[in-house]
TrEMBL record:
Name used for this protein in its record: MOR1B protein
Gene3D superfamilies membership: Immunoglobulins
Provenance organism: Bucorvus abyssinicus (Northern ground-hornbill)
One GO BP: regulation of neuroinflammatory response
Gene: Cd200r1b_0
Lineage: Eukaryota, Metazoa, Chordata, Craniata, Vertebrata
A GO CC term assigned to this protein in UniProt: external side of plasma membrane
Family of this protein: Belongs to the CD200R family.
Length: 176
């Protein structure tokens, strides 16, 4: 999420037409098209963040600027040439890294939160703990995971929360 993404399409000689058909997981589909005989591009129902990377006659790649969860879905490039039709399908999955916060609750127990990640993050502790994480889904498709170490006793120990996520791992330490 937040980065630009480029989807390539097979570049063939003597292109007659190139069409990108985009079907987001949620929302309306959109189409970008290029006709070589008229040197004309067309767009139907596409947001400004979806566009040709360069010039479709030279490179039919698609660029998605500031990728967000709304961009998730199927992207298919169809290239038509005198030799035939060529399809390049993609399924775009958007990863959202969670925000890590580590604090101490009123009883002196470490609490680790991996907020608004997609997919849900995994949380582990050092030293190891039998904590059961709680997950809360959000309307935007992200998930917040909360994990608490209980029964630490009165020992002041350095506790580390490790958040595992496909968009990158994070860790933070605290003494409660």
């Amino acid at each position: 999420a937040g980065d630009s993404s480029v989807l390539t399409c097979c570049l063939k000689p003597n292109i007659t037409m190139v069409t990108w058909k985009i079907s987001p997981r949620i929302g309306d589909s959109c189409t970008l098209g290029y006709r070589a005989d008229q040197n004309k591009t067309d767009r139907t129902n596409c947001s400004d963040s979806i566009n040709w990377k360069f010039r479709p006659d030279l490179d039919p790649a698609l660029e998605i600027g500031q990728v967000g969860i709304a961009h998730e879905g199927t992207y298919t490039c169809e290239v038509i040439t005198p030799e035939g039709n060529f399809h390049t399908p993609y399924y775009l999955t958007v990863l959202v890294p969670p925000r890590l916060t580590l604090s101490c609750d009123d009883h002196g127990n470490p609490v680790c939160e991996a907020a608004s990640g997609k997919p849900a993050a995994q949380i582990s502790w050092v030293p190891e703990s039998n904590s059961t994480p709680e997950e809360e889904g959000r309307d935007d498709g992200t998930v917040t995971v909360l994990s608490k170490v209980t029964a630490c006793g009165s020992n002041l120990i350095n506790t580390t929360c490790i958040v595992w996520h496909p968009a990158g791992n994070q860790s933070e330490s605290i003494v409660c």
